[in-house]
Amino acid sequence: MNNIFLITKREFLTQVKKKSFIILTILAPILLIAFGAVIGLMFKANESHSVIEVVDKSRLFSNQLKSSDQLKYVFVSAADEKSKIENLKDNESLDGILILPELKNDNFNDLQKNTRLIVNSKIGFDTKQKIVSDIIEIIKKEKIKQLGISESQLINLDKSFTLKTINVSENNKEDSDLAFGVKSGLSILLMYVTFMFIIIYGVRVMRSVLEEKNNRVVEIIISSVKPFELMMGKILGVTLVALTQFVVWITMSVIGALVLNTGFSSIQKNIPGGNEELTDKLDITQIATQVSHSLLELNFPLIIFVFIVFFLLGYIFYSSIYAAIGSAVDNETETQQFTLFAILPLMLGMYGSFSLMNNPDGPLGFWLSIIPFTSPVAMIARIPFGVPAWQIALSITLLLGTTIFMIFLAGKIYRVGILMYGNKATLKELWKWIKG
């Protein structure tokens, strides 16, 4: 046991003392946010700003086609239609001319057939759809007016309906759409992080084992420690490295949420009567504040506990497989035929968990979060929505038992494979090592 502790300590300190680890741990969340901001700016920078001249022969659209930041309508006389079209090609400040024909006998079908958009360059799909949407909206209103419905009646007709949901299993707490969206986002984030880290750090264990095997360093090491102790030391050392990163990131996330939540409280106090309509019109910063407020209303102690436990057990479970693979082969090329067995169950759990958003308590969600091969990602995906305590306990018990069993099997393979050179391992060969 002392040898396992010493090897774990060595692996852990070797990793965390690297400048790359320190920089990545501190800057990764910031870089992730910055990356998202850059993507947003790229979409913003690529937004189209089109100017469209409109020839409205029907005199129906003149006061109703409204310009926006991305699309500007400029109405021109029908008498200038021909000259405008002729000069369009050389007019760099104009993107197109919209010809709306005369409306005869309220025949909107003919209006649609004869409406044309003449452009001098390629026009974006979004811009074209915006023009179509604006025209359809005006025609729709005109048809409704012809039915004798007033503007106020039309507004009342289109008024949205908000369904307030009260969850009796959560002390009659209101379950808003924002809260559900926050839970879904957190679910996907935690699940994806777990999936990626198990693979990344599992592969790191495999490569570490393979490197020491190829350098023949392992022959010296196992003269002082048992192969099983070496394997467990490596797995636990890298596990602590991953947990250290998680602790730092979780702390940063909680502090950020608390800061934003303080801002939310100040904003809310300045809104008379807690007016929901005004709250809905707040900018992006204030929306982020509301999201952080919803996050802090979740049962974070339970979420963090489940996240750490399932990540820890899931990582040890799959890292045992990766360590066994690293000991059984001689080069990284040969690892491909075995790593598929480790990746497929995780992928099944991750992609299957996307269906849990609509029904977290359904049979698929239950079995994916109970079966040990998929539970490390599936249970983490379910936990923001709330999971019965008995299911969490059952899943942990099964995963713990399976992890211990997997460590035992991996130890059998590692003990023999770590000293095997030039012998390509097969499934049949691995089975002999396990039985031996």
Structure commentary:
There is one protein chain. The chain has 436 residues and is mainly alpha-helical. It contains 17 helices and 6 strands. The strands form 2 sheets. It has a 4-stranded mixed β-sheet. A two-stranded antiparallel sheet has the order 5-6. A hairpin with a 5-residue loop joins strand 5 and strand 6 (173-174). Helix 12 packs antiparallel against helix 13 and helix 12 packs antiparallel against helix 15 (375-382). The longest helix has 43 residues, at 227-269. The chain is elongated and about 95 Å long. The protein starts with a helix and ends with a helix.
Give short descriptive properties of this protein.
four-stranded mixed beta sheet; 436 residues; mainly alpha; 17 helices; two-stranded antiparallel sheet; single chain; 6 strands
